[in-house]
Amino acid sequence: METAITALSALAQETRLAIFRALVRAHAPGEGEGGLAAGEIATALDVAPATLSFHLKELQHAGLIVQRREGRSLIYKADLSAMLGLTGYLLDDCCQGACGSLSPCAPGSATMPEKECVS
Known about the structure:
By secondary structure, this protein is mainly alpha-helical. It has a single domain, classed as Arc Repressor Mutant, subunit A, CATH 1.10.10.10. It has helices at residues 2-11, 14-26, 38-45, 49-61, 80-95; strands at residues 36-37, 65-70, 73-78. The protein has a three-stranded antiparallel β-sheet. Helix 1 runs antiparallel to helix 4 and helix 2 packs across helix 4.
């Protein structure tokens, strides 16, 4: 429960949610490691570097993003397994097991068309 609260708290802020969504969109299976450099995120979202750094640390602390170094750049990537774990926890707890193996990316899901799912 504590992990879920930390993750939900991190996403309950407009800039952090925008950052996470940008990183999810930048997730490119089969095209290297994917992700965005901090400068790319700052430019795309028009966020000052110091502000961006603060929000990235909050998302990292919540386990929702990972960071790697490429040369002098820090590259950030959404941790999709952490997000799927969070949504799974919410569904399992909410439904008390009655939801079975519902996934927002399950084929035919009403919540997210299959073509938009990230695997």
